[in-house]
Amino acid sequence: MATIDDIKSRIDIVDLVSEAGVKLRHAGKNYTGFCPFHDNKHTPAFVVWPESGTWRCFGQCNEGGDIFKFVMKREGLDFKDALQKLADRAGVKIESLQREAPQVREAHERLRLLLEDAIIFYRTHLFNNKEILNYLREKRKLTDATIESFGLGYAPHGYDNLLKQFLPKGYTEQELIDSGMLSVREADDSRNSQHATRSYDRFRNRIMIPIRDETGRMAGFGARIVDPNDIPKFLNSPETPIFTKGHLLYGLDRARKPIRMADQAVIVEGYLDVIALHQAGYENVVSPMGTALTEDQLRLLKKSTRRIVLALDPDTAGQKAVLRGLDAARSAMDREGELGFDARGLLRNEARLQADLRVASMPDDLDPDEIVARDKDEWKRLIENAKPIVTHVMDSLAVGQNLNDAKVKNQIASQVLPLIEDLPNAMERDTYRQALARMLKVNESSLVGTQTQGQVMRRRPRAVDQSQRAVTPVVALNPTLKIESYCIGVLLRKPVLLYRLDRGLQEFGLSALAVEDFEYTDHQLLFGVVRLAVEQDEKEHHQYVMSHLPETISDVSRDLFAQTEQIDPADDKLLEELLARFIDLRRANAMLNVNQLRFLQEDEQQQGGANIKIYQEQAIQFTRLLHSLDQAKRKLTSKRQA
Length: 642
Known about the structure:
Blueprint: H1 3-10, H2 13-19, E1 25-27, E2 30-33, E3 46-49, E4 54-57, E5 64-65, H3 67-75, H4 79-90, H5 102-127, H6 130-139, H7 144-149, E6 153-155, H8 161-166, H9 173-178, E7 182-189, E8 194-201, E9 206-212, E10 218-225, E11 234-236, H10 252-262, E12 265-267, H11 271-279, E13 285-286, H12 295-302, E14 307-312, H13 314-317, H14 319-325, H15 343-353, E15 356-361, H16 368-374, H17 376-384, E16 387-388, H18 389-398, H19 406-422, H20 426-440, H21 444-450, H22 479-493, H23 497-507, H24 521-535, H25 541-548, H26 554-563, H27 573-606, H28 612-641
Helix pairs in contact: 1-4, 3-4, 16-17, 18-19, 19-20, 22-24, 22-26, 22-27, 24-25, 27-28
């Protein structure tokens, strides 16, 4: 039995939910109660299915999942932490997640100790360099207390300063390389006709900024130029055993508590901006590592808040950046020191993480530190007035444009409508279409016409409506588990099929595949890898999948590969088979929800019927979905028989 299935078999979901403070009432084979994830205590719309080990909220959340999803959402954990927590509860030993070997842990701790010693080394050089110190004090307006608190330093000129400093202290050259402070290049030794390696200081003549992980452990450095002719402007430590820039946020070790207190996180572009804002009293501010935001970074913030503001300067968040963000090739932009604004990617992450992402543009070409220096309260107003991503894009595209020009109207509509269609919530889509129609001074019906031509036809299929989220009860006794496992197994083997599946579903009037089509949390994670694989262009799709499979579910992925070993990815009938299975899967889930909603209506009627309309509306939505799925199945059957 796979580790995850073993854990599920040992934990009763009713006990787990009840221990979280949810009062469940026995209702037939199932249990109902008030949802613990929102404040509505008038409608018992939270349902637990003991046989399948799943839950669902038919109210405001409109979410469902298994025990892992419940713990992740309830306690703000990622899957790895939820897996370990539930494994401990179930008494299951997770071999792949055992703590690193003592020798590896010792090596990592030694690298962190080396980095801590390097802070002192760079700090000493800073306080011995009046020019750099005065720059931080006078130009950046940082106090000595702030400089000391954040551990700022200065890397002097020269290529062998670190070797001279740390070799006598007992550190090795390899440790300096592994820490990311020494770089290595090949050197041609003409005398021996061999290639030798030479190491040299990676950081030279730069302001040094220590970077710590969210727990405060040293991970690496960020370095800003002193000479304006040097490039790049910002230089981070390279990827090391303890530094992965996509998993780190600068300042998060200090900002976690302020973020929770403010129930809001603010992301800025520069490390020095973070420092200046903390100094000004705005301590809920962090910065990524000079690249586009990753989902891992957003998940770090999601542990403390779902409200996230991107405070971007006009060059980053302006019209040109918006247009780049709409380009599928935008993902290739990853330059040191530039925070990318990928509108489409941010909207996808917002939907997946159920976060509230907004954008605040900086005025007058000023950086955040310059704004708080000019007017401390101005920063607060800017963040309070942050706009939703789609609104920001609309406003940015309209700046300086003649909105009475029909061609301009069409151009803006063709840029914005794909973003609107990506939104998973029907009410949000309608609201933004209405806002776009008002801005362009056109009838909303004309925007619907625009969606049938031009760039919008090439847009990414939008995510499944919240109202159409499929809920798949998945336990060993449930037949839909086999369907779900088979489908994700095939996609792992041949990720490119996802493109064709999306198109095939859309031809039948159905939404593209999304993580919500899988109820098992581990299957959702694997589908996420497949989706990322087909959206990137740096690696071959299958190679990307194999190199990004989460270690936490390695046993699941091995089982899925074994189950689909006999399939022929080149079989032309495979696509039609997958389409049929996904339609069946969605239909079974929709039917389950319809039946449960009917029960809830009957129960609510006995209680007085005050909230029965909510259940009726949802039942109608799922009934309509069933009708669409049945139509699609008939069309597919006719196509296969032709």
